Amino acid sequence: MSSASTGGTSATGGEQSLARGAVFGAVAGAAAYVLGYLVTYVTQSGRVEEGLSGINFFADLFGGETISVWRGVGWVFYNAHFVDVEVPSLIGAAQSVNFIAESDGGFTYLYVVPPLLLLVSGVAIARAAGAATPVGGARFGALATAGYLPLALIGAFLFRYAVGDGGSVAPTLVTAVLLAGIVYPALFGAVGGAAAGATAE
């Protein structure tokens, strides 16, 4: 009786930890995405606005929709996850562009921003869930995907800029979902969670 009761209590405790980890995972993952975008906006909005000024001048001149700075910053934010932005070409197929890689190297540090924030999220999730081992911590930390993935998917559409004949400038959808939305939070969240579990008292 005592053994069964203990087993039931342990199972219930495990379920509660998992539920708590899932909730914190959704919150921490979403926070990491939003903070990553905000860091990119604060540090790069001026550069993006300057880069868009020529295009927006002609768009405005011919009555077209100008490209908002917040949307251009979104492209750079996805580039920081190694997600290319598809740009329609006047001749042939669309081109894939990474504005960070094609820059003069002045803001390559942005590549570090998403992993760093997700590592911190993984630590926070594992601590909140009470992970006591590296393996348990990694499992909880990977739950950052619950919050990061939906926003990565929404952002891929939100940062889309429509051009003529049905074309658009936007993060590549497949890699935005698979790489930015799943691989990044699962990998770096798990590493952060494992570190938290390994150092748990």
Describe the fold and architecture.
This protein is mainly alpha-helical. The chain has one domain (16-198). The chain is built from six helices and four strands, in the order H-H-E-E-H-H-H-E-E-H. It has helices at 2-61, 69-79, 113-129, 134-141, 145-158, 173-198; strands spanning 85-87, 95-97, 161-162, 168-171. A hairpin with a 7-residue loop joins strand 1 (85-87) and strand 2. Helix 5 runs antiparallel to helix 6 (173-198). The longest helix has 60 residues, at 2-61. The model is unreliable at 1-10 (pLDDT under 50).
Quickly list its features.
single chain; 201 residues; mainly alpha; four-stranded antiparallel sheet; 68% helix; elongated; Transporter; transmembrane helix; transmembrane
